[in-house]
Amino acid sequence: MLKQVLARQSSTTVWMSPHEKLCKAMFTINFLNCSFENMSPPVVRHFNSGNQFKLSQHPPVMIRDPETWETKGPYELVTWGRGYACVATPSGPWWIPQKSVKPLSLKIQLQQKGIRGK
């Protein structure tokens, strides 16, 4: 398949270096190559296939405001990844550093409701 794409692109990539030709061919294969059976490109199918990283629930979390250092919440966790998390606040989604996000524990939930634990 790579040889076929390189051959098809040979007339438009005459001035490119071999490295640039290979990059363009790989981009075409990974991002622009769709079939009639599956209209999504291979890269989309690859990154959408892992269900273990998708949130099935949006757990409540407590956050520390990076500006005031106050603990706020609980807020609903929308998504997270690579050092950042997105939480749903009343004013809209808020992206904050992941180190400022902590899961809401049962102890904190009971304290907020006024129930004392052992």
UniProtKB/TrEMBL annotation:
Pfam families registered for this protein in UniProt: IN_DBD_C
Record-annotated DNA-binding residue ranges: 59-106
Any one GO BP annotation for this protein: DNA integration
One MF term in the entry's GO annotations: RNA stem-loop binding
InterPro entries reported in the protein's UniProt record: Integrase_C_dom_sf_retrovir, Integrase_C_retrovir
SUPFAM superfamilies documented for this protein: DNA-binding domain of retroviral integrase (SSF50122)
Keyword Metal-binding (UniProt): yes
Protein name as annotated: Integrase-type domain-containing protein
The species this protein was found in: Hirundo rustica rustica
